[in-house]
Design goal:
Chain B: Residues 7-257 form the ABC transporter domain. Chain B: Keywords: ATP-binding, Nucleotide-binding, Transport. The structure holds two protein chains of two kinds. By secondary structure, chain A is an alpha/beta fold. Chain A has two domains: 18-104 and 188-363, P-loop containing nucleotide triphosphate hydrolases (Rossmann fold), CATH 3.40.50; 115-185, no CATH class. Chain A has helices at 60-67, 94-100, 112-115, 122-133, 138-151, 157-160, 170-182, 200-217, 228-234, 252-257, 262-270, 314-317, 346-362; strands spanning 18-29, 32-44, 49-53, 77-84, 87-88, 105-108, 188-192, 220-225, 237-242, 245-251, 322-326, 338-341. Chain B is built from ten helices and twelve strands. In chain B, α3 (113-124) packs across α4. Chain B has an eight-stranded mixed beta sheet with strand order 6-7-8-3-9-10-12-11, sandwiched between helices. Chain B has a domain at 5-95 and 175-311 and 320-328: Rossmann fold, CATH 3.40.50.300. The chains are: A alpha/beta, B alpha/beta. Chains A and B meet through α7, α8, α9, α10 and α11 of A and α5, α6, α7 and α9 of B. Bound molecules: adenosine-5'-triphosphate (ATP) (2 copies), iron/sulfur cluster and magnesium ion (2 copies). One adenosine-5'-triphosphate (ATP) binds next to β2 and α1 of chain B.
């Protein structure tokens, strides 16, 4: 599947720090081909935060592992383009991609225990990571590790640096993992459910920390979560994923105040909210998320969509394109504006939102 | 409200021994639940919230007698069941069922849905009018599953459907009280809403009483009539949903509520937040007196020496704190020590 030979028609490097073009990640399995990511495109600049939301199995983690080049090429079929600071990674040799990890891009994993080695102290793991990219003595690297642990709010970092991961509490481990990910000052940081395993008071501390650190290091940040509250707190832009593809993309305001995809409406209305008077009933999305082996034909969301019959047969036969519904209003990362993948005409969607959906969310 | 509570828990505790070495010498105890009291009235929903490890699940398991209490009493339907033998407990078990946290591990993968949901009929020897199969199919329909799913296996279902199977199993015996331990936390938001609505419908239809244990404060607010907040094995605040959420009395409740991320990006800059420092201390060595004093911004010396008792401060709203929030100041600073 090498694309090196047709480099003549490869597209030119984009201006954004990170750009995905039609990324596809498929896994051949005994049950069939799992299309975990199927045609994903987005852009992200340094200093900006992109939130990726979606239900379990929508392809969020597979995407992030794909960007870092962490899929095993023997069982994952990766195609499309991933441009990071002018370099294309899908066709790049694995060694070249590996060299970018740590310094250019780093990841915070959902489960810190699985990402940290149990037999090495927290400090040693940060020191090793730092010394791969920086020619410094052990002593200098150690001082850096202590600094980083202090920065992420570990008390008495000069003592705790010699602890093993299991000696840290859940919240401290997540902080240590952030310290490790940030130790080489990465330009792109991907945080995959960084707070899902944590208690709400600790989650709040970690979200503050990520916000501060991103400002300070001016990195590009991708935050992956199923919690709409978390993305609302941190993101400039939001990408809503469903069944391996983006179904809506826009500024945080677009997604929360003028969403146009019925799935996004469903997410917003199925969630109980602390900031509103409690409603009598929640408004769930009927049915369950799609199988990625037998992806529903036409619009992936059509079997669950209450408006599917408004577009006749098209819902079940034709895959809707991701189209711009409102131009980007520059200054806001400014990318591509508000994009929606739905057969309904924009005017119809907007009227449904204003007249049907939004009032339901606000009634008590 | 003078009616008898359906469930009454008084000073309930569970201390797990911590042992060391080959001889299993006891070196300490995890005070997982340490003096918890509350009542649940027929037909109401009590929500129990708190951070990981505060003792929510242990409380549920003590009430249903899956664990033997170390102290205190549990009175259900007017009978003291705290140390009742399993034999005498059996008829009462029907009336009190537990829904478990994990819809994946709580169903036997080798049994069909029919066997799983029908098991309680056989175990309890319940007579059915039209046979067990028909009764099971009725329950499947009640929880929104297709009665034709009778011969299918759990792995053929999604998480939300498995949670429905779990609920169907508890309903088989027509219980009066259901203890639901994180019934929706393993589910996606869209499915979560389906199960939350189902629980509400069943409550209405069958007159069920719920104790719902969860860490998600928004879900708990949605489904509860009253809410209890736990911290390190103790209830620190309990009250009606509305007063607890709009005017929390305990600093911890206030901090918890203010830490929840709100899906309203415009408000994010002006929102006032209380940021607690550090993590929850270990239940092996909980801080003395008020267990929250190590993280509390209002703590005074008295908080480190005198344990605040759970006392009513507003109508039906109790708090265990020397300096509660949203409440008139305690006269003369030093409150009375624990009354005997
Ligand atoms: N190595 C693999 N082989 C086959 N299928 C895979 C593999 N890795 C992931 N998948 C499948 O790809 C889909 C997307 O998985 P992914 O982990 O990206 O979901 P996610 O959106 O991160 O979900 P969650 O919110 O549960 O973390 C799932 O259906 C998963 O089973
Ligand atoms: N069988 C046991 N033996 C020893 N300690 C236990 C046992 N069961 C629970 N504990 C401890 O008791 C405390 C309370 O646990 P419990 O499971 O009740 O917490 P929880 O509030 O349900 O937490 P979570 O939100 O994580 O489910 C914890 O510190 C736990 O480690
Ligand atoms: S008793 Fe003191 S330490 Fe405890 S919550 Fe109240 S003010 Fe804080
Ligand atoms: Mg994931
Ligand atoms: Mg629990």
């Amino acid at each position: 599947m090498s694309r090196a030979d047709n480099s003549a028609d490869a597209s030119p490097a984009p201006p954004s720090y990170l750009e995905l073009r039609d990324l596809r990640i498929h896994f051949p399995t005994d049950d069939g081909l799992v299309k975990s990511v199927d045609g994903l495109s987005f852009r992200l600049d340094r200093g900006k935060t992109l939130g990726i939301v979606g239900e379990s199995g929508s392809g969020k983690s597979v995407t992030s592992l794909g960007i870092l080049g962490l899929h095993n090429r023997r069982n994952a079929r990766v195609s499309g383009e991933i441009w990071l600071d002018g370099e294309e990674l899908v066709t790049a040799p694995p060694d070249a991609v590996r060299a970018l990890r740590g310094k250019k891009m780093a990841m915070i994993f959902q489960d810190p225990l699985s990402a940290m080695h149990p037999y090495y102290t927290v400090g040693n793991q940060i020191i090793e990571a730092y010394r791969i990219h920086n020619k410094v003595t052990k002593a200098v690297a150690r001082k850096h590790a202590v600094d980083m642990l202090g920065r992420v709010g570990i008390p008495q970092p000069d003592r705790r640096v010699d602890d093993y991961p299991h000696e840290f509490s859940g919240g401290m481990r997540q902080r240590a993992m952030i310290a490790m990910a940030l130790s080489c000052d990465p330009e792109l940081l991907i945080a995959d459910e960084p707070t899902t395993a944590l208690d709400v008071t600790v989650q709040a501390q970690i979200l503050d920390l990520m916000r501060d650190l991103q400002r300070e290091f001016d990195s590009a940040l991708i935050i992956i979560t199923h919690d709409l509250g978390v993305v609302a707190e941190l993101s400039d832009d939001i990408l809503v994923m469903y069944g391996g593809a983006c179904i809506e993309y826009g500024s945080t305001d677009d997604i929360f105040y003028r969403p146009e995809h019925p799935y996004t409406w469903g997410l917003l209305s199925s969630m109980p909210r602390l900031d509103r008077e409690p409603t009598e009933r929640l408004l769930p999305i009927k049915g369950t998320p799609p199988s990625l082996i037998n992806v529903p034909p036409g619009c992936v969301f059509s079997p669950r969509c209450p408006y599917a019959d408004r577009t006749g047969d098209r819902a079940a036969t034709e895959v809707p394109e991701l189209l711009e519904t409102r131009a980007g209003h520059g200054g806001h990362g400014g990318h591509g504006g508000h994009m929606v993948r739905c057969h309904m005409p924009p005017a119809e969607r907007r009227s449904l939102w204003e007249n049907d959906v939004k009032p339901m969310l606000e009634t008590t | 409200m003078s009616a008898e509570p359906l469930l009454s828990v008084t000073d309930l505790s569970k201390h797990f021994p911590v042992t060391k070495g080959l001889l299993k010498r006891q070196v300490g105890a995890v005070k997982a639940v340490d003096g918890v009291s509350f009542d649940v009235m027929q037909g109401e929903t009590l929500g129990v919230v708190g951070e990981s490890g505060c003792g929510k699940t242990t409380t549920g398991r003590l009430i249903t007698r899956l664990l033997e209490p170390s102290g205190g009493t549990v009175v259900f339907e007017g009978q003291d069941i705290t140390h009742m033998s399993q034999k005498r407990l059996r008829p009462l078990r029907r009336d009190m069922q537990m829904i478990f946290q994990d819809p994946y591990s709580s169903l036997n993968p080798r049994h069909t849905v029919g066997t799983i949901v029908g098991a309680p009929f056989h175990i309890q020897g319940i007579k059915t009018e039209h046979g067990v199969k028909r009764a099971v199919q009725d329950i499947l329909a009640l929880v929104g599953l297709n009665p034709e799913h009778y011969n299918r296996y759990p792995h053929e279902f999604s998480g939300g459907q498995r949670q429905r199977i779990g609920i169907a199993r508890t309903l088989a015996l027509k219980p009066r009280l259901i203890i639901a331990d994180e019934p929706v936390s393993a589910l996606d938001v869209s499915i979560q809403a389906q199960v939350v609505n189902l629980l509400a419908d069943l409550q209405e239809e069958l007159g069920l009483t719920y104790v719902v244990i969860a860490h998600d404060l928004s879900v708990v607010r949605h489904i509860s009539d009253r809410v209890a907040v736990m911290y390190l094995g103790k209830i620190v605040e309990i009250g009606r949903r509305k007063s607890l959420y709009t005017a929390p009395l305990h600093p911890y409740t206030n901090a918890l509520l203010s830490a929840v991320p709100i899906p309203d990006p415009r408000g994010r800059s002006e929102r006032e937040r209380i940021r607690l420092q550090g993590d929850v201390p270990s239940p092996l060595n909980p801080p003395p007196a008020c267990r929250f004093h190590t993280r509390c911004w209002k703590a005074q010396d008295v908080c480190k020496t005198v344990e605040p008792v759970l006392a009513e401060r507003a109508d039906g709203h109790q708090v265990a704190c020397h300096f509660p929030e949203n409440a008139p100041a305690v006269p003369d600073g030093v409150p009375e020590p624990t009354a005997g």
